[in-house]
């Protein structure tokens, strides 16, 4: 996204990328449920592996490296990138220095709140629908597609909203932070709604809203990473943000499973998820402040 789109145009392409992720999760439950019920769980896993392999093999020849494509002057200007800067290579010391920056830690913790929610629902939504709302396995496969369809829409709407704000002159960092913080608080409130919903239909509506807003915010999280880092550091900053978020998110299935085993209810687990999402939003707002400079390791850190 950083290589192929200017800062004012990255929101929607990033939204399309994240939407494809949730679209896969939307399609998977009913298709895999049918395969599992008809042919067994082994065939279901083989199908997933083969399909993923085909996609990975297709991606390799389709994707083009910008450095190997001859651009016209108009195309180069539209990207708004400093060609010399984009060729700068990251040193190991510069990469290690990123872990000393307050902004980077804020991004890791903030995105951790997003992925905590994402992983909780990815890991436990079918189990929740069966154990707490008493849906059959076959019906769960279809109902579980609804929230992730909303997640797909959330990613697309988020990308369009970010582009619109930036084109109106709002600073890219501020635009993405406002959107991500607002979306994360809305997701947290929706998750609380899941815990207190009186009916299965009400719970599915609340889950759908929680996933809509968490993917809306997650798309902006990638926008924050691109806006905060100089071009030659975008990949490293994004990877570190993702690494930190997965460390936080890995706790979601563990904590939820332990609480479910101990309390036989999803109630406390959902409240903890809401709290984690809210703390992530506060991290983005109060900790993620200073742009990341692209200087040498001896340069001031800005923290």
Question: How does this model look, in words?
Answer:
With 303 residues, the protein is an all-alpha fold. The protein has one domain (11-286): MFS general substrate transporter like domains (Growth Hormone, Chain: A, Up-down Bundle). 76% of the residues lie in helices and 0% in strands. The chain contains 13 helices and no strands. It has helices spanning 11-39, 41-62, 73-79, 83-86, 92-97, 102-131, 137-143, 145-167, 172-196, 200-228, 234-249, 251-263, 267-286. Helix 6 (102-131) packs antiparallel against helix 10 (200-228). The longest helix has 30 residues, at 102-131. It is globular. The two termini are 27 Å apart. The model is unreliable at 297-303 (pLDDT under 50).
Compact summary:
This protein has 303 residues and is mainly alpha-helical. The protein has helices spanning 11-39, 41-62, 73-79, 83-86, 92-97, 102-131, 137-143, 145-167, 172-196, 200-228, 234-249, 251-263, 267-286. Helices cover 76% and strands 0% of the residues.
CATH topology descriptor: Growth Hormone, Chain: A
SSE arrangement, N to C:
HHHHHHHHHHHHH
CATH class: Mainly Alpha
- Number of spatially distinct domains: 1
Mean pLDDT: 89
The biggest sheet, with number of strands, parallel, antiparallel or mixed sense and barrel status, is: none
Beta fraction: under 5%
Q: What overall form do the CA principal axes indicate?
A: globular
First-to-last CA distance? 27 Å
Helix content: over 70%
Number of helices: 13
Total DSSP E strands: 0
List unreliable stretches of 5+ residues: 297-303
Reported CATH architecture: Up-down Bundle
